[in-house]
Amino acid sequence: MIEIQNLCLVYGSGREAVPAVEEVSFSVGDGEMVAVVGPSGCGKTSLLLAIDGLVRPTSGRVLIEGEEVRGVRRDVALILQDAGLLPWKTVRQNAGLALRIQKRRESVDGILAALGLNGFERRFPAELSEGMRRRVGIARALALRPRVLLMDEPMANLDSLTRERIQNLLLDLWWEMRFTAILVTHDIEEAVFLGQRIVVLSPRPARVRAVVENPGMGEHDYRGSPEFLERAKVLRRILEENG
Fold it and tell me: What is the pTM of this model?
Protein backbone atom coordinates (compact mmCIF):
# COMPACT_ATOMS: atom_id res chain seq x y z
CA MET A 1 0.00 0.00 0.00
CA ILE A 2 2.68 2.53 1.09
CA GLU A 3 6.32 2.20 0.09
CA ILE A 4 8.99 4.58 1.40
CA GLN A 5 12.13 4.04 -0.67
CA ASN A 6 15.51 5.49 0.35
CA LEU A 7 13.86 8.74 1.42
CA CYS A 8 16.13 11.70 2.16
CA LEU A 9 15.03 15.17 3.25
CA VAL A 10 17.44 18.09 3.56
CA TYR A 11 16.33 21.60 4.49
CA GLY A 12 18.38 24.48 3.13
CA SER A 13 21.55 24.18 1.04
CA GLY A 14 25.29 24.56 1.24
CA ARG A 15 26.63 25.28 4.72
CA GLU A 16 23.09 25.95 5.90
CA ALA A 17 21.85 22.49 4.88
CA VAL A 18 20.14 20.54 7.67
CA PRO A 19 19.53 16.83 6.98
CA ALA A 20 16.25 15.70 8.55
CA VAL A 21 15.72 12.22 7.08
CA GLU A 22 18.42 9.98 5.59
CA GLU A 23 17.90 6.83 3.51
CA VAL A 24 14.66 5.76 5.24
CA SER A 25 12.90 2.75 3.75
CA PHE A 26 9.93 0.77 5.03
CA SER A 27 6.50 -0.34 3.84
CA VAL A 28 2.97 -0.38 5.23
CA GLY A 29 0.51 -3.02 4.07
CA ASP A 30 -3.08 -2.39 3.05
CA GLY A 31 -5.18 -1.96 6.21
CA GLU A 32 -2.12 -2.05 8.47
CA MET A 33 -1.42 0.42 11.28
CA VAL A 34 2.27 1.18 11.80
CA ALA A 35 3.70 3.31 14.58
CA VAL A 36 6.87 5.39 14.14
CA VAL A 37 8.89 6.33 17.23
CA GLY A 38 12.15 8.15 17.79
CA PRO A 39 13.80 10.90 19.82
CA SER A 40 12.30 14.40 19.82
CA GLY A 41 13.43 16.38 16.79
CA CYS A 42 14.66 13.33 14.91
CA GLY A 43 12.63 14.00 11.74
CA LYS A 44 9.42 12.05 12.41
CA THR A 45 7.14 14.93 11.36
CA SER A 46 9.22 15.65 8.25
CA LEU A 47 8.85 12.01 7.25
CA LEU A 48 5.07 12.19 7.68
CA LEU A 49 4.81 15.41 5.65
CA ALA A 50 6.73 13.78 2.81
CA ILE A 51 4.36 10.80 2.83
CA ASP A 52 1.43 13.24 2.69
CA GLY A 53 2.97 15.08 -0.27
CA LEU A 54 3.35 18.39 1.57
CA VAL A 55 7.16 18.20 1.43
CA ARG A 56 9.10 17.09 -1.65
CA PRO A 57 11.88 14.56 -0.94
CA THR A 58 15.45 15.62 -1.64
CA SER A 59 15.95 12.10 -2.96
CA GLY A 60 14.15 8.79 -2.81
CA ARG A 61 10.41 8.49 -3.20
CA VAL A 62 7.09 7.59 -1.61
CA LEU A 63 4.63 5.30 -3.40
CA ILE A 64 0.96 4.80 -2.51
CA GLU A 65 -0.67 1.89 -4.33
CA GLY A 66 2.26 1.92 -6.75
CA GLU A 67 1.86 5.60 -7.66
CA GLU A 68 4.58 8.07 -6.70
CA VAL A 69 3.39 10.81 -4.34
CA ARG A 70 3.91 14.20 -6.01
CA GLY A 71 1.42 16.25 -4.01
CA VAL A 72 -1.54 15.98 -1.65
CA ARG A 73 -3.92 13.12 -2.48
CA ARG A 74 -7.68 13.05 -1.94
CA ASP A 75 -7.53 9.57 -0.37
CA VAL A 76 -4.97 10.55 2.29
CA ALA A 77 -5.86 12.44 5.49
CA LEU A 78 -3.42 14.03 7.92
CA ILE A 79 -4.01 14.72 11.61
CA LEU A 80 -1.54 17.15 13.17
CA GLN A 81 -0.68 17.50 16.86
CA ASP A 82 -2.55 20.80 16.90
CA ALA A 83 -6.10 19.95 15.83
CA GLY A 84 -6.12 23.21 13.84
CA LEU A 85 -9.78 23.99 14.45
CA LEU A 86 -11.23 27.27 13.23
CA PRO A 87 -12.47 29.08 16.37
CA TRP A 88 -15.38 30.79 14.60
CA LYS A 89 -16.84 27.52 13.31
CA THR A 90 -18.87 24.95 15.22
CA VAL A 91 -17.91 21.34 15.85
CA ARG A 92 -20.02 20.19 12.89
CA GLN A 93 -18.60 22.89 10.61
CA ASN A 94 -15.01 22.10 11.62
CA ALA A 95 -15.54 18.37 11.17
CA GLY A 96 -17.03 18.92 7.72
CA LEU A 97 -14.47 21.46 6.53
CA ALA A 98 -12.41 19.07 4.41
CA LEU A 99 -15.58 17.64 2.87
CA ARG A 100 -16.73 21.13 1.85
CA ILE A 101 -13.33 21.92 0.36
CA GLN A 102 -13.62 18.77 -1.74
CA LYS A 103 -17.26 19.71 -2.57
CA ARG A 104 -18.62 16.51 -1.06
CA ARG A 105 -22.06 16.34 0.55
CA GLU A 106 -21.61 13.53 3.10
CA SER A 107 -22.87 14.09 6.64
CA VAL A 108 -20.37 14.16 9.50
CA ASP A 109 -22.94 13.31 12.17
CA GLY A 110 -22.13 9.59 12.13
CA ILE A 111 -18.42 10.05 12.73
CA LEU A 112 -19.10 12.69 15.41
CA ALA A 113 -21.35 10.21 17.21
CA ALA A 114 -18.71 7.47 16.91
CA LEU A 115 -16.22 9.82 18.59
CA GLY A 116 -18.62 10.69 21.42
CA LEU A 117 -19.33 14.22 20.14
CA ASN A 118 -23.08 13.93 19.56
CA GLY A 119 -24.82 16.74 21.41
CA PHE A 120 -21.84 19.06 20.87
CA GLU A 121 -22.35 19.69 17.15
CA ARG A 122 -23.25 23.38 17.65
CA ARG A 123 -20.51 24.14 20.17
CA PHE A 124 -17.44 26.20 19.32
CA PRO A 125 -13.85 25.04 20.02
CA ALA A 126 -13.49 27.41 22.99
CA GLU A 127 -16.38 25.59 24.67
CA LEU A 128 -14.66 22.19 24.45
CA SER A 129 -12.01 20.41 26.48
CA GLU A 130 -8.63 19.75 24.86
CA GLY A 131 -9.51 16.08 24.45
CA MET A 132 -12.76 16.94 22.68
CA ARG A 133 -10.96 19.36 20.35
CA ARG A 134 -8.56 16.56 19.42
CA ARG A 135 -11.53 14.31 18.68
CA VAL A 136 -12.98 16.95 16.36
CA GLY A 137 -9.67 16.98 14.48
CA ILE A 138 -9.83 13.21 14.16
CA ALA A 139 -13.45 13.45 13.00
CA ARG A 140 -12.49 15.94 10.28
CA ALA A 141 -9.90 13.52 8.92
CA LEU A 142 -12.06 10.40 9.15
CA ALA A 143 -15.09 12.14 7.60
CA LEU A 144 -13.21 11.89 4.30
CA ARG A 145 -13.24 8.08 4.62
CA PRO A 146 -9.54 8.07 3.68
CA ARG A 147 -7.67 5.04 2.42
CA VAL A 148 -4.63 6.32 4.34
CA LEU A 149 -4.61 8.11 7.70
CA LEU A 150 -1.42 9.87 8.82
CA MET A 151 -1.24 10.97 12.46
CA ASP A 152 1.40 13.25 13.99
CA GLU A 153 1.20 12.82 17.76
CA PRO A 154 -2.57 13.51 17.85
CA MET A 155 -2.76 12.72 21.57
CA ALA A 156 0.32 14.61 22.77
CA ASN A 157 0.02 16.56 26.05
CA LEU A 158 -3.29 14.98 27.04
CA ASP A 159 -3.81 13.49 30.49
CA SER A 160 -3.36 9.71 30.70
CA LEU A 161 -7.03 8.75 30.91
CA THR A 162 -8.11 11.03 28.04
CA ARG A 163 -5.23 9.73 25.97
CA GLU A 164 -6.25 6.11 26.57
CA ARG A 165 -9.89 6.85 25.71
CA ILE A 166 -8.88 8.36 22.37
CA GLN A 167 -6.48 5.48 21.69
CA ASN A 168 -9.37 3.06 22.26
CA LEU A 169 -11.59 5.10 19.93
CA LEU A 170 -8.95 5.07 17.21
CA LEU A 171 -8.58 1.31 17.60
CA ASP A 172 -12.35 0.82 17.29
CA LEU A 173 -12.51 3.04 14.19
CA TRP A 174 -9.57 1.23 12.61
CA TRP A 175 -11.32 -2.12 13.13
CA GLU A 176 -14.50 -0.67 11.59
CA MET A 177 -13.02 1.26 8.64
CA ARG A 178 -9.76 -0.68 8.09
CA PHE A 179 -7.86 2.34 6.81
CA THR A 180 -4.10 2.11 6.40
CA ALA A 181 -2.42 4.23 9.06
CA ILE A 182 0.93 5.61 10.17
CA LEU A 183 1.06 6.99 13.70
CA VAL A 184 4.02 9.16 14.71
CA THR A 185 4.44 9.25 18.48
CA HIS A 186 7.10 9.75 21.14
CA ASP A 187 5.12 7.58 23.59
CA ILE A 188 6.37 3.98 23.81
CA GLU A 189 3.15 2.53 25.27
CA GLU A 190 1.03 4.28 22.64
CA ALA A 191 3.21 2.85 19.88
CA VAL A 192 2.83 -0.67 21.31
CA PHE A 193 -0.93 -0.29 21.77
CA LEU A 194 -1.64 1.01 18.25
CA GLY A 195 1.17 -0.31 16.04
CA GLN A 196 1.05 -3.73 14.39
CA ARG A 197 4.66 -2.96 13.58
CA ILE A 198 6.80 -0.25 15.16
CA VAL A 199 9.48 1.57 13.17
CA VAL A 200 12.25 2.94 15.41
CA LEU A 201 14.15 5.97 14.11
CA SER A 202 17.57 7.22 15.14
CA PRO A 203 18.39 10.76 16.32
CA ARG A 204 18.45 13.32 13.48
CA PRO A 205 18.90 12.73 10.67
CA ALA A 206 16.30 9.99 10.97
CA ARG A 207 17.38 6.51 9.92
CA VAL A 208 15.53 3.25 10.52
CA ARG A 209 17.23 1.50 13.44
CA ALA A 210 14.75 -1.33 13.93
CA VAL A 211 11.30 -2.60 12.97
CA VAL A 212 9.58 -4.34 15.88
CA GLU A 213 6.80 -6.83 15.16
CA ASN A 214 3.83 -6.49 17.51
CA PRO A 215 1.40 -9.37 16.83
CA GLY A 216 -0.66 -8.84 20.00
CA MET A 217 -1.92 -5.39 18.93
CA GLY A 218 -5.63 -5.03 18.29
CA GLU A 219 -7.50 -5.67 21.53
CA HIS A 220 -8.34 -3.22 24.33
CA ASP A 221 -7.11 -5.63 27.02
CA TYR A 222 -3.69 -5.93 25.34
CA ARG A 223 -2.56 -2.90 27.35
CA GLY A 224 -2.44 -4.89 30.58
CA SER A 225 -0.98 -8.12 29.22
CA PRO A 226 2.53 -9.50 29.86
CA GLU A 227 3.14 -9.43 26.10
CA PHE A 228 2.42 -5.67 25.99
CA LEU A 229 4.84 -4.98 28.84
CA GLU A 230 7.54 -7.10 27.25
CA ARG A 231 7.13 -5.37 23.86
CA ALA A 232 7.36 -1.95 25.55
CA LYS A 233 10.53 -3.11 27.35
CA VAL A 234 12.10 -4.20 24.05
CA LEU A 235 11.20 -0.90 22.40
CA ARG A 236 12.60 1.13 25.31
CA ARG A 237 15.86 -0.81 25.17
CA ILE A 238 16.27 -0.16 21.43
CA LEU A 239 15.65 3.57 21.91
CA GLU A 240 18.11 3.77 24.80
CA GLU A 241 20.79 1.92 22.82
CA ASN A 242 20.36 4.38 19.94
CA GLY A 243 20.62 7.54 22.03
Answer: 0.92
